[in-house]
Amino acid sequence: MTAYPALGLVDAIAGQLADPNAVPLGSRVLSADRQHLAYGSPGIALLHIELAANGLGPWQRAHDWLAAASRQPLTSGPDSHPFYGVPAFAHALSCAADHLPGSYQRALDAMDRQIAVDVERRLDTAHRRLDAGRLTQLAEFDTIRGLTGYGAYLLRRNPDSSTMRAVLDYCVRLTEPITHHGETLPGWWAQTGPSGNPDDRFPGGHANTGMAHGIGGVLALLALAARKGSVTDGHHAALRTILAWLDRWKEETGGGPVWPYWVTQGELRSGRLGWSVPRRPSWCYGAAGLVRAQQLAALALGDASRQIDAENAFAAALTDPEQLKATTDNGLCHGFAGLAHAAARTADDAQPSTAGRLRAAIPALLAAVTPPRTDPDRMATALIQDEGGGPGLLNGAVGIALALLAPSTAAPPRSAWDACLLIA
User: Fold this and answer.
1) 284 φ, ψ to 5°?
2) Is 75 or 277 the better-scoring residue by pLDDT?
């Protein structure tokens, strides 16, 4: 690879994570986190798959990590979810299979059948809950653990299947208002706090806007499906319902428009947000994910004005000192590398008038990750051994490496590794 600092770091991380049997912190990566896309072997395999698909690394490394993830049986059923167990492994395996015709097909076919069964069971539970007029749980619908995340996988693997259609039908129904104790709430109103657990700070629950755990992910899935021709009854109306909610809670600041991470019952009743501290513009919560979702929705609806507004909002966030000050790490989920990747993805689909602004912000984001005179090997070691992030995808070294590739090379990913994030 080039000596350019960002790509040098990618190379160093890949080299230090070449062999699953020699990886630092290997006991956890290969045991407790073995099946986890965010922290374990499936996520690490994605880096080697993307590099091999680009001709920048050997396929054997990808094979070795996929084998490490599947040495023992994978979890399916109620204890699995899009980032854990069979669905997580299937995402990584399918990314490899896309570039290796004929490989892994028997395993993928078996996992697809299991995933369809699990999704149908989840859908049945969700519709029973809706029929009874009860509030949802975040894990029912979100990107990480719920039906939106399953939809991301199905949209790649089986976009015309009845299961995919059923997920879209559910997403449409989720946007319909629900009456709870005489109060009209958005259909995605969760009865818990953002952690998914009861929380005294959220006595009446909340409406989550994030990509990871909120309605932002549903918006992105519906938009991506529409752009690929997978449309169900009420599809465009559902897109507009979510967009109207985001418009309602958008706030204009000196650094551009911002959206809350969530809306509480008190805020809903008063019509005013209770927060004022600038927040990081990340994928999981904030502009990087939420603006990309709005751009995709605008593209699906053919709304050029809304598209430009979304792109300008992201460009503003990427140059707002207050929002950038709130970004304190380098990770994919909510750090500078994730911002750079989302900016590159957004710029690829942007209007010419805004694409330039987005791309112009990327070098500073890359420099925040790998400042001048960065020693790639030392930084890779520090990232991999960091107790908070470790080697994994969502917060760790592999996610940083993957997120640096597209913005550094000005070329979109060759594999569909980021499909699980619903930004492409």
Assistant:
1) -65, -45
2) 75
- Return all residues near 128 (Cβ < 8 A) that are at least 6 apart: none
| Structure token pair of residue 198 | 């009861």
3-state SS, residue 272 = coil
Verdict on whether the full-model pTM lies above 0.90: yes
Q: Per 3-state DSSP, what percentage of the chain is helix, strand, and coil (rounded to 5)? A: 55, 5, 40
State the Cα–Cα distance between residues 299 and 313, nearest whole angstrom: 16
Structure tokens at 75: 């979890």
Whether the CB-CB separation of 144 and 216 falls below 8 Å is answered with no
> C-alpha angle with apex 410: 409 to 414, nearest 5 degrees?
75
Pairing of β 262-264 and β 206-208: antiparallel
- Rounded to whole angstroms, the Cα distance separating 220 from 239 reads 9
Instruction: Give the burial class of 215: count Cβ atoms within 10 A of its Cβ; 0-12 exposed, 13-18 middle, 19 or more buried.
Output: buried
The DSSP H or E segment spanning 148 is: helix 147-157
Tokens representing 282 are 């990340």
8-state DSSP, 207: E
CB 228, CB 159: distance < 8 Å: yes
| Model pLDDT for residues 39-49, shown as the tens digit of each residue | 999 999 999 99
Query: Other CB atoms closer than 10 Å to residue 424's CB: what's the count?
Result: 20
Whole-angstrom CA distances from 402 to 45, 308, 345 are 11, 27, 13
Nearest 5°: the CA angle 213, 215, 219 is 125
- Please identify which residue in the block is written with the tokens 């790490």: 329
Task: Report d(CA 304, CA 423) in Å as an integer.
Answer: 19
Q: For residue 319, what are the contacts with CB-CB under 8 A and spacing of at least 6?
A: 255, 361
Q: By C-alpha distance, which of 371, 361, 366 is closest to 256? A: 361
Lookup: tokens for 292: 């990309």
Match 């975040």 to its residue by tokens. 138
Confidence band, pLDDT 50/70/90 cuts, at residue 359: very high
> What pLDDT digit, counting tens, does each position of 185-225 carry?
999 999 999 999 999 999 999 999 999 999 999 999 999 99
For residue 146, give the amino acid letter. Answer: G
